[in-house]
Fold this protein.
Amino acid sequence: MSAVTKARSDLGVKTRKLGPNHPDTIEARRTFRAEQTAAYIEKVLAEAPPLNDEQRARLAELFRPTNADTRSGVA
C-alpha cells in the first residue's frame, strides 16, 4: 500500500469516527496532503532532467519556513 493510499484511508476513518474538525482528523488531513505533495514532487523529479546545484538550492529554499517579508525580498 502506498503512503498516499494509507494516509487517505486514515483520513477517511478518522473523519467518519471523529468528525471533520477533530484534532486527530486535522492532523490526518495534514499528513495526507504532505504525502500527496511528496508523491507529486517525486514524480516530477523522476521525469525531469537532473538539476544543477543552483536549481536544487532554489527549490530547497521553497521548503524553508519564511515570513511574508522575507519572501518578497524585504528583510
Q: What stands out?
A: DSSP finds four helices and no strands in the chain. The mean pLDDT is 90.
